[in-house]
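Handout, tutorial session.
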Amino acid sequence: MGTLTVIPSIEKSFALNDRLDLIPHLDYGYARNLSTDEEAQVYSVGVRTEYHFDGMTSKNIWVNKLVYAGSRTFESDQQDTYVQLLTGFDYSLGNGFTLWDRNVRPTFYALTYWSHNGIDYIEHWQDGTSDEMVFELGSTLWAPEPYTIMMVDVDRIGIGYQQNAFGHVFRLFAGSVF
């Protein structure tokens, strides 16, 4: 593990119709590079849409997201920002099973996103060398009624396999896929 990050978030969901939600959000948190002990504040603001569709169950979503994010280190005052565009889906694989007195559903997800920091965006785009695309496939266990772990509600745990500009990464997470 190279970085420890804790990012609390606030968001509000607005139902545009019975299948489409608009969800703006604001994140602000803390990150620490475990190799260098550098600490930073991290933040983002953005909006996502969730389109709910039927499949094996009625709990499937297609997500699109636009995010502006950044960071600032405390000691050296280095700053960085970027923009991210994301699209993906989370597909429920049936009604699931019972685990510790709660219903849990396995899901399959796929996502892709593109992000850039704007510094060399135009040059990369023009010469076709942009490698900022990320592709990820994974699976989760989703609990419609969350588990409370150390005063935190957790409704999803998952593992994903990601291909990005740095190579291949396995991602373990708790919370939202997106």
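The second record follows below. Compare its token runs with those of the first.
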Amino acid sequence: MKDRAIAFDFDGTLVHSGYDKGVHIMYATYLACATSGFRRFLHPRDPSQDVERLLRGLLQYAGAPRVQQLAALVNSLIHDRPVAVETPAGLGLEPELAAEYENVRGAYDAVYTALNEAAAAKYWKAYPAARETIPRLAADFDLYIASGVPQDLLEADLVRHGYDRRIFQEIWGANRQGGADKTEILRRIAARGYEDVLFVGDANRDLEYARAAGVKFFRVETPDDFLRLAALVRDGFPDLAESWTWTQADKEFFRTKTRRLVDALLAGRPLSPTEATDAIHA
């Protein structure tokens, strides 16, 4: 065991997935609601209203486990309150709708996974700078993965993108029932007795997880950040203290790309996962 440890988020940090996942989250939530009794909360004659509410939920929960993301976006659709609830009862629904939430969650999980798989097969790539830097960091630090991706998918994605799992002490993701968020994982790592722990992520939510776990944080925005990280850690772990804001361009990307997929659905021509990912990248 080395004196210090570095934990990495996965999607958006070690793999360049852009903002695709944000659109996937919004559209998968909309589709899961549209194909269930939750359709009563949608406004097919004015889908812009639903897209805005979905966007508010996404911006609060980007980087969170998918179960929390769905809960926040559904809550935003129903009550314009983008806050994740732990159980369907927290949505304030009548019993039959609360029971149907499990079907919504199942549909969301299937659609979201299919979209991610299609995008990963064609567009998502591991950062070359990350694949070059991480083995060098492993010589001096214990390395971990701390991700919100479900454990089974995370294991498969590591293989898909060519990362050697032997470099990492542990690879920890979320479970599909919503447990094991990144705060819990980071606390588990810190409890091993390291002198210092650094979490490397790409979202404001990752910064919040680091703060809650009492570890330091470094943000990845571009591939060059891995080279900067490798230089910085020689003199001690860096620590980003301030959160950042979404730009108007970011919001417009989520808004317009999601609206395109929703419009196709409402027109009776829903896009396949491959067609949807192509539309996002068009």
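Points raised in discussion: The radius of gyration is 19 Å.
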